[in-house]
Each structure stands twice: as structure tokens, then as C-alpha cells.
Structure to design on (572 residues):
């Protein structure tokens, strides 16, 4: 298991954002996390990425308890993330954004540059390498988020709504990219609202509602789960 | 170019551009070396002023420009350098060069302690500026209050009885070359930083600490490193400047005016660019010289500082260098 959560809870003052969350992710799996707005997805995402620590419970990454570590320490341990609202480093070019990521594990400038170019190529951004990162379109910005995260050479990639705002054909492309990342042996955990992508892409889906896990299983099983239909998918929904 | 693949072509652009930049920089250096041999004392003094502000502002640019932490307390490190050498020489007779090295170490240590507190408790933006300013002001008041360090009158640097280069008492032309050497070191260091890991990691912190952390950077550690380097570079420039003036006192070295003046060349020329402080120092020196002549009042330059700071931060926040570098083929950030 690359990632294991045991009885994780997070409170903000009196508000319980997450309680008793336990699940684990085997290596090279694609795990989707779905749920309504406010269900606790972002909190869960931030707990794993290290923006804040769990109030109780443990988070293990390849066996080690990382619950108390900083976000940068987790990145160095092998957990990379994207931002829901893309955050390109505005004064750097597209290439330089990815280069900054590549420097996570590589000190040498030319070696890091090679990895950055490779990663740009992998994410289909080579043509934009020397463009200012602020000039990209939305799908390109989302790919830049992925490329910068990938350049840190992670073992676990956290994707925060990378498909939101994409056209159907762009969602297809993003799905292909996710599969290719997984095929490199990177485990993917993604928070997503685009059901078509969740159902097609995920090996497993965890459903959150009011800070608790209400279902955890293969997409097909989730689709038929009464609790999930009531809480999230809705009666009329026919995904 | 046509037979190269698109990717290979793009990779090739950077080193080639670097070579052109190096040639231009070397030409500039040759001109700077020859300059004092052909000019009057007046122009030599202007040249020293330009190089002094370039190197001083260049040292600030590491923390203020590259790391994006707008320090208003940089005068403190400059003054620590000046006071260390002047005090060690006038009281104990230590050679100035030794005082300069000690000053640099003390400034670095000071930056380490202050920076650790400031960055640890995450003082950003304005709070960082005010915090560093407060630190500098406390030191200024302290220096003025302690008779041991000359009090408000400062320390006059005794004239050397022997000719000894370690005492660093030179003719103006020698100071010109000392400041030129400092300028070259700082520009080269800045350019190296900008192209390497440290520079890209600082750039990430400057633009977004959240993103920086997500790619494995510890903002506290990196900012601290930048702050210590900035301080260690500012102190020897303080020593040089005090040797040029032959005295140290609180207002000249710790003063609020210095704290603001040091920021200006980098802001005007281009924050976080290797040549920005040089460009800014040239523009600033001539602007001040002109305004003082036109207005014939010493206060006029203060007005000019304020006006320039406003004009540049509003109209040209990235300074003059990006405009110039578009015209030069080999320029990089």
C-alpha cells in the first residue's frame, strides 16, 4: 500500500470537516474521490498534501507516518499535487515552471532542463515551452499544473479537479494523460466532479458525504449504491 | 536551424543567448575598466557613486528581488560592515581587511538570527518590510546611544601612518576599482543564481509559497539562505564606503534614507535581474545629480526619490531591464 489513512479526522474549531476516514491505495492505482461540495474532499486532499495536519488519526505514505510533516517534506517524500485553480508561477515561462519542479530532485541545471523538456513533451506542452505561463489557455494551464507536479518525480500524484472546465474532447485527452501517468507506475488520487472521467478512469472510487466515507468500491458498484445515489449521484442520473 | 527538430532548436536557444550576453557583459566591463583613465575627478566621483549603488543594491536584490522579500532593513548590514572595520581599526588597530571579513560574518549571523524569527513566524510583504526596518532602526538608536561605538558622532577613521593595503585607505581611483570588483562579483553571482536551482526555487517562493512547497521547497530555509547571502554581501560594501568617506556615523550608515536608497536602483532597473541594479543606479545617479543642480537645494533629491519610487512601482513594476533586454539579443533574466 502506498497510501494508508487510518481513522483520520479534521476539525476546524467546532466544525468537523472529516471524521473517521480510513482507506488505503495500492501502488499504481487510480483512486477517485467524489462527493458534494462541502463533503470534505478538499480537506482530505489538503490533509494528504500536507497543507495541514490531521486532528487525529494517521496518514501513512509507503509505511511512514507523514501526518505531521510539512507540505514540502511530503513533496520530497514523493507526493505531488496540482491546484484546483491553476497557479502558474507568473513571471516564469512554461518551461521554467516545469524546471522549478524538476529541481526538486535534481541539482544540475542541464539535467533538470532535460527532465523538464521530457515532461513538457509527455504533457503535450512542448510547443508552448517558451511562452509566458500566463498566456496559456485553461486546458494548457491544467496540463502545466500536471507537468510541474510530475517533474518532481512523484510516486503519488494528487489531482484537484483537473478536468473541471474542460470540453468533452479535452476531458478525453486528460483521461489519456492520466492513464499514461499511471502506466509509468505513479499512483493517482483525484478529486473530480466530471463523472464520465471518474467512472471510466478510476480503479476505485471513494465517496464522501458530510465528512464521512459512505461508499468505497469499483465504479460499477458505486453507480448502483443506494446511499451514493441518494447523497450524490441523484435518482435521475444515468452516468 | 531548419534541420534541427523543434525541441532541439528550443534547447539550443538558451546557451547561444548566454554567449551573446557574456560578450556584451565583457565589453561593458572593458569600458568600465578604461573609464577612469579618460575622465575628470567629477566624472570619477559619479562613476564611484554608480558602482557603489549598483553593488549595494545588487546585494539587496538577492533577498528583495530574487526572493521577493522587500527588506527595508538592509542598511543595518551595510552599517554593521562599516562599524566593524572602523571600530576594530580605531580601537584595536586591526587591519581594515580583517574588519571587513569580521563585519561580513557578523552581518550574516545577524541575518540568520533575525531571519529565522521573521521567516519562522511567516512575516510576509509589508510585515516583513516593517519588521526589518524596525530591526535596523533599533540598531541605529543603539549605535547612537553607545559611546563605545562613537555615539551619535560616529567614529572617524584614523589616517594610516604607513602605506599598507590591508588598511584599505586608497585614492578615489582605487575605490572606483574596488567598487567595480564588488559590482562584478555581485552581478556574476546574481546571474549564476538566476540560472540555477537556487534561483528557480527563489522565483517559485517569490511567485507563490503554496506552489513552492508543493514542489518540495522549504520557503523558510530558502529565504533564510537568501537573506544571509544578501547581508554577507552588504557588509563589505559598508566597509568600502566607510573607507571612502573616512568615517562612520549612525545617520549615514543606518539611516532611513539609506534603507530606501538601496532599494531604488533595483526597483528602477528591474527586481530580480542581474543587471537591473546597474541600470537603475546609472539612471538614479544622474537623475539625482540633475535634480540637485536644477533645484539647487539639497532636499530636492529626496523629492526625486519619492517620485521615482512611485512612478516605477505604478507604471513600470518590473523596471527598465525588461524593456532594454528585449532590444539586446543575448540578454537573459
Amino acid at each position: 500500500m502506498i497510501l494508508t489513512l487510518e481513522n483520520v479526522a479534521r476539525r476546524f474549531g467546532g466544525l468537523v470537516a472529516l471524521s473517521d476516514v480510513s482507506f488505503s491505495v495500492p501502488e499504481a492505482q487510480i483512486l477517485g474521490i467524489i462527493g458534494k461540495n462541502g463533503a470534505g474532499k478538499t480537506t482530505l486532499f489538503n490533509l494528504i498534501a500536507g497543507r495541514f495536519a490531521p486532528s487525529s488519526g494517521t496518514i501513512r505514505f509507503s509505511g511512514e507516518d507523514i501526518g505531521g510533516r510539512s507540505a514540502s517534506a511530503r513533496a520530497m517524500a514523493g507526493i505531488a499535487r496540482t491546484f484546483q485553480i491553476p497557479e502558474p508561477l507568473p513571471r516564469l515561462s512554461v518551461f521554467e515552471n516545469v524546471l522549478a519542479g524538476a529541481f526538486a530532485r535534481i541539482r544540475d541545471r542541464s539535467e533538470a532542463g532535460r527532465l523538464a523538456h521530457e515532461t513538457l513533451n509527455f504533457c503535450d506542452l512542448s510547443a508552448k515551452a517558451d511562452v509566458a505561463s500566463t498566456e496559456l489557455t485553461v486546458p494548457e494551464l491544467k496540463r502545466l499544473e500536471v507537468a510541474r507536479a510530475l517533474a518532481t518525480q512523484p510516486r503519488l500524484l494528487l489531482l484537484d479537479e483537473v478536468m473541471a472546465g474542460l470540453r468533452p474532447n479535452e476531458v478525453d485527452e486528460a483521461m489519456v494523460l492520466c492513464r499514461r501517468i499511471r502506466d509509468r507506475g505513479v499512483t493517482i488520487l483525484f478529486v473530480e466532479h466530471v463523472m464520465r472521467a471518474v467512472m471510466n478512469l478510476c480503479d476505485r472510487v471513494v465517496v464522501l458525504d458530510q465528512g464521512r466515507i459512505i461508499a468505497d468500491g469499483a465504479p460499477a458498484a458505486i453507480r448502483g449504491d443506494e446511499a451514493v445515489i441518494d447523497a450524490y449521484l441523484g435518482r435521475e442520473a444515468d452516468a | 536551424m531548419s534541420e534541427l527538430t523543434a525541441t532541439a532548436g528550443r534547447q539550443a536557444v538558451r546557451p547561444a543567448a548566454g554567449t551573446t550576453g557574456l560578450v556584451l557583459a565583457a565589453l561593458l566591463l572593458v569600458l568600465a575598466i578604461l573609464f577612469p583613465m579618460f575622465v575628470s575627478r567629477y566624472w570619477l566621483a559619479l562613476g564611484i557613486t554608480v558602482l557603489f549603488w549598483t553593488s549595494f543594491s545588487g546585494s539587496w536584490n538577492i533577498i528583495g528581488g530574487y526572493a521577493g522579500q522587500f527588506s527595508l532593513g538592509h542598511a543595518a548590514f551595510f552599517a554593521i560592515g562599516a562599524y566593524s572595520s572602523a571600530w576594530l581599526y580605531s580601537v584595536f588597530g586591526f587591519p581594515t581587511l580583517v574588519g571587513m571579513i569580521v563585519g561580513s560574518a557578523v552581518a550574516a549571523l545577524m541575518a540568520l538570527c533575525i531571519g529565522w524569527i521573521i521567516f519562522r513566524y511567516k512575516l510576509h510583504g509589508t510585515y516583513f518590510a516593517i519588521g526589518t526596518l524596525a530591526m535596523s532602526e533599533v540598531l541605529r538608536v543603539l549605535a547612537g546611544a553607545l559611546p563605545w561605538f562613537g555615539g551619535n558622532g560616529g567614529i572617524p577613521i584614523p589616517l594610516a601612518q604607513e602605506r599598507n593595503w590591508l588598511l584599505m585607505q586608497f585614492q578615489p581611483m582605487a575605490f572606483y576599482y574596488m567598487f567595480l570588483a564588488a559590482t562584478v562579483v555581485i552581478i556574476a553571482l546574481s546571474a549564476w543564481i538566476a540560472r540555477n536551482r537556487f534561483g528557480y526555487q527563489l522565483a517559485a517562493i517569490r511567485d507563490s509559497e503554496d506552489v513552492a512547497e508543493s514542489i518540495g521547497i522549504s520557503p523558510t530555509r530558502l529565504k533564510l539562505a537568501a537573506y544571509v547571502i544578501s547581508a554577507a554581501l552588504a557588509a563589505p560594501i559598508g566597509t568600502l564606503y566607510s573607507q571612502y568617506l573616512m568615517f562612520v556615523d549612525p545617520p549615514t550608515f543606518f539611516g532611513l534614507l539609506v534603507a530606501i536608497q538601496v532599494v531604488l536602483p533595483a526597483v528602477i532597473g528591474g527586481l530580480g535581474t542581474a543587471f537591473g541594479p546597474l541600470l537603475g543606479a546609472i539612471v538614479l545617479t544622474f537623475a539625482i545629480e540633475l535634480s540637485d543642480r536644477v533645484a539647487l537645494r539639497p532636499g530636492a533629491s529626496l523629492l526625486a526619490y519619492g517620485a521615482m519610487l512611485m512612478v516605477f512601482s505604478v507604471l513600470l513594476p518590473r523596471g527598465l531591464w525588461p524593456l532594454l533586454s528585449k532590444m539586446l539579443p543575448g540578454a537573459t533574466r
About this structure: The longest helix of chain A spans residues 168-183.
